[in-house]
Write a structure and sequence with these properties.
Strand 7 and strand 8 form a beta hairpin. The chain starts with a helix and ends with a strand. By secondary structure, the protein is an alpha+beta fold. It is built from four helices and nine strands, in the order ααββααβββββββ. The longest helix has 24 residues.
Length: about 180
């Protein structure tokens, strides 16, 4: 009798663990899925394998090259890392919608992503813009990320570390 009771309790415990995993797997994203969108774009562009014109500008010194990107997931990592669907950030973004655009904004000092704007044409994403700002006693930085599918992406970054000269970066890729 004791063996059956122990087996029953053990089986019940395993069953409850599996139900918890299913509940977590079914939660919907509250905001635009930046990470998922750029993973899909990475796969799509990996198949298309477009030639691009890449311009890198660091503190006014520019270099331009024509090339083919071998790892689009790595190329888009700065965009994908701006995911606003973190569990601890739920409810931290104000959402404004109109017919063409959805904008997510946060004024929370602990959240570096201040704005995500997604522009649509029908159901298709036509533009993604992300503004990131980090500030503390020693360091200030800001990023502006803009992506137009099959056209262009632009990353502008400025950073200032106390006692050091400010740096400005810009990366532009034209498809």
């Amino acid at each position: 009798m004791n063996k059956k009771l122990i087996f029953f309790v053990f089986a019940l415990g395993l069953l409850s663990c599996n139900q918890e995993k299913q509940i977590k797997a079914n939660t919907d994203l509250l905001y635009f899925d930046i990470k998922g969108y750029f993973q899909k774009e990475s796969l799509r562009l990996q198949k298309l394998n477009p030639k691009i014109l890449k311009e890198v500008n660091i503190n006014g010194s520019a270099e331009t090259k024509k090339l083919t990107i071998k790892d689009w997931e790595k190329e888009f990592s700065i965009f994908a890392n701006a995911d606003i669907n973190k569990a601890s950030w739920r409810g931290s973004f104000k959402v404004q919608k109109n017919d063409e655009e959805v904008t997510y904004t946060s004024s929370n000092k602990r959240i570096p992503i201040k704005k995500v704007a997604v522009k649509y044409f029908g159901d298709e994403v036509k533009k993604v813009e992300i503004i990131i700002s980090n500030k503390n006693i020693l360091y200030t930085s800001g990023d502006s990320l803009i992506y137009y599918p099959d056209s262009l992406y632009l990353v502008k970054k400025h950073q200032k570390i106390k006692l050091l000269k400010a740096k400005k970066y810009q990366i532009k890729e034209i498809f």
